[in-house]
């Protein structure tokens, strides 16, 4: 009699439990209509990233600086009294006394003005690529945080459903033990209570992980958004390219087009131009000046002619060892260092991509193993132990272990699928040049994820 009650309770719980989990990990229903979905989260983060606004302001500032750098220095105007006698301070006492107005203008060395403007303009070209790289980075990070939160939320749902099963198991075993019917032992009751306590602990850990993932999103999302439960329906990150069939040469071309690499390449171009700018220091700098001197009439009433002076100044860069030569040498070294920085960045991208790609291949193998073999076997094992126990041919501890193993397998399967989505999101970062939502920054357009 007690076994039959137990059997019915377990079958009811098992049917509810099985309805929770779906191989796509999207079958749990959240009753709250206002949920936080992946698409809205990514779009909000991309459209409200403060770093992008700061980058745009830096670009505007640099553009203004380039205009200033291509402009000649202002002419210098001076007004003064010249050769004023100190024994009477009379303006008409001496012939040399005059009120003099001077204006002078300096010109740049060689083509240095145009090259200075060109350097800044080339550096300005980095900013759109840096913003595109930042968007790709934010997109991958936000997706990972959201998916980790989703992982914790779905695991909580699975465990809560299993917790109901274990609660019913405890009630059945206690009833069987109290009535002294069947083979229920005191250790069966203790085991059930222990497993229930362990599930409580797992729920606390998962709640902590859910909070941590959500708080990680606080960098981009308003706080009232973080109070929402996560949506169970989400647009999975689709690969921007078939990574499994991506040849090595195609990978290098893909990485060379990455916004981070193109931004460094723009800096390399500016550094090369700075070499030509440094070489302009070998050329002389010209200056012109013109002065007009006004003289008063003599004390006797005779007129004095005003004086006009015109001059040209040229500096002679004759001693170049300690200044011009060193400036050129420094510019060349900076250019080479930036080229090396580009190679290092490319190597880092390649290494990180290959690491993520190797994990994708393995996790796809694990996902196929769980979906095609392990989960069906776990379900069969749980059902077989339950059937044996209801026929008085099995042990209660076997039923518990089978149910625990099935729960663990389902959570592992969920983790595998989430890990796969995260890896794809990371791999898409390396293919950012193919992402319209990222590359739209170069055209100033806005796309939705």
Automatic annotation (TrEMBL):
Gene3D superfamilies associated with the record: Outer membrane efflux proteins (OEP) (1.20.1600.10)
Matching InterPro entries: MdtP/NodT-like, OMP_efflux
Keywords in alphabetical order: Signal
UniProt organism field: Pseudoalteromonas espejiana
Signal peptide feature range: 1-25
Source lineage: Bacteria, Pseudomonadati, Pseudomonadota, Gammaproteobacteria, Alteromonadales
Alphabetical list of Pfam families matching this protein: OEP
GO molecular function: efflux transmembrane transporter activity
Record-given protein name: Copper transporter
Entries under SUPFAM superfamilies matching the protein: Outer membrane efflux proteins (OEP)
